[in-house]
Amino acid sequence: MMMTELQIFGALATSTVFISRFFYFRSIYRDGAKPHAFSWLIWGCISAVGFAAQVAEGAGPGAWARGFACATCFILVFIGWQRGDRSYKTGDWMTLAVSLSAIPLWIVTQTPIWSVILVCIIDCVGYLPTIRKAVDKPFEEPAAGYAWFAVGALLSLAALEHYTPSTWLYPVVMVISNSAMTGFLLLRRQQKTAIA
């Protein structure tokens, strides 16, 4: 059976997210990367919501990468508890509490677009614990993992069956936020190397 163009892009997007996770897992076990469990828990919960919203709005193969990303987020939560950065600060706990307490708002809104807007905001807030840690320890986060994830989110846009704000907004935010995180990590690494 021949794959449609959308299915090809969906498979490419999912493969690219797989590559991003490969870099992340390899960095954990080979290079000593330490995922912040709070960020990954927030991203896992929000990815589940975003995936559900995309499926409800008929995203088709454009949602495949989000579903795969969601599953791997929860694997990284577990690894984060076991091997990750455990220097949780008050701000990390506050970020986690605010993010998770916003999930019931998604249930109350009952509108896909408001759900996706909330998801995008919470997802961006989820970066705060990892950014706080990466300011001092930028080598504990694999920049390549974030870069490849941005590419996967971009490809998932090409795989969407229906373009509505509810289906395209979250992947666009993922492209921007993961690209920004990549740039931030590379900049902090350069600064740390220059100081050393």
Unreliably modeled segments: none
Largest beta-sheet characterization: none
What is the total number of structural domains? 1
Please count the beta strands (DSSP E, at least 2 residues each): 0
Can you write the helix and strand succession as a string? HHHHHHHHH
Q: What overall form do the CA principal axes indicate?
A: globular
Average pLDDT, all residues: 85
> By helix and strand content, what is the structural category?
mainly alpha
- Count of DSSP helices? 9
Helical percentage: over 70%
Q: Measured on Cα atoms, how large is the radius of gyration?
A: 16 Å
Strand percent estimate: under 5%
**Euclidean distance between termini CA atoms:** 57 Å
What does this structure look like?
The protein has one domain. It is built from nine helices and no strands. It has helices spanning 5-31, 37-56, 64-83, 90-101, 103-109, 112-125, 127-136, 143-158, 165-195. The radius of gyration is 16 Å and the shape is globular.
Summarize the structure.
With 196 residues, this protein is mainly alpha-helical. It has helices at 5-31, 37-56, 64-83, 90-101, 103-109, 112-125, 127-136, 143-158, 165-195.
List the SSEs and their pairings.
Layout (H helix, E strand, L loop, with lengths): L4 H27 L5 H20 L7 H20 L6 H12 L1 H7 L2 H14 L1 H10 L6 H16 L6 H31 L1
Helix pairs in contact: 1-3, 1-8, 2-3, 2-4, 2-6, 5-6, 6-9, 7-9, 8-9
